[in-house]
Each structure stands twice: as structure tokens, then as C-alpha cells.
Amino acid sequence: MAMQLDFLFSKKSGLILGTALSAVFYLPTSHASGVFMHERTGGQIYVIFCSQCHDSGWEGAPVAQYKSDWEERLPKGIDAMLQTVISGSMAMPPNGQCGDCSEHELRHAVEYMVTFEE
Ligand code: HEC
User: What is the pTM of this model?
Assistant: First the structure.
């Protein structure tokens, strides 16, 4: 027991704790800068960032996976729609509110939104 307590307060345990803590704080920032970028799926991006408007059609947002809301928009193609998302449009903030989304992730989110059950 005494040994364990000694260890807890020893320099060595401080070093281990410090390393563990800095790993915890290091990961989120490196994630944002893309070093350990782990790509999220379109569905994940959608649920986190887009669904708050695109589930309900808030402010005229086309409802995800609801075909008739997309029929006018689809002919311009995914690329053009992706550009709208990146630059923002009317009530939609730039990047659809996802500050750290890559273009790739946003594209997958758009593709997810225009996937319809026949
Ligand atoms: C704050 C609400 C809001 C959020 C969050 C939001 N959108 Fe939108 N979105 C809108 C609105 C409103 C429109 C309709 C804008 C228009 O007609 O120009 C729209 C339009 C779109 C369109 C159609 C663009 C076009 O060219 O026709 C796509 C695609 C889209 N959003 C994708 C996304 C994606 C992907 C996300 C999440 C990463 C997202 N949106 C997040 C409100 C939002």
C-alpha cells in the first residue's frame, strides 16, 4: 500500500499522468487541423450538423431524403449543391454550420440527403 501511494506522488507517476493528459488535450486540436483526420460518414455529419434544419425544412431547407423537396435542385448536380453548402445560402450558414468538415465529408452529407427510398 505504502509503495502504491509513493508511486502515485512520485515524479514518475506525474510524468505518466502528464503524458496521458496531454494526449487527451492534444487529440481534439490535431483533429481540427487534420493531422489525425478521421473521416466521418455522410450520415454522421448529417445528424450532427445538418439535421436541425433539414429534418424539418426550417426556413425552406429541403427536407433530407424527401424526394419532392429535391426535384428542382437535383438537375444542377451534386457539385453545384456542394458549392452552395460551402458558401452558404440564405438561412444556411457556410459549410452548413460544420466548421471543421472537409469538402469530402460535406459531399457525403449531401449525397446522404439526396438518397431516396424508392
Ligand atoms: C441553419 C439551418 C441549416 C443548416 C444547419 C444546414 N442547412 Fe442546408 N439549407 C438550409 C436552407 C434554409 C436551405 C435552402 C437555401 C436555398 O434555397 O438557397 C438549404 C439548402 C441546402 C442544400 C441545397 C443547395 C442547393 O444548391 O440547392 C443542400 C445540398 C444543403 N442545404 C446541405 C446541407 C448540409 C450538407 C448541411 C450540414 C453540413 C446543411 N445543409 C446544414 C438550412 C440549413
Answer: 0.77
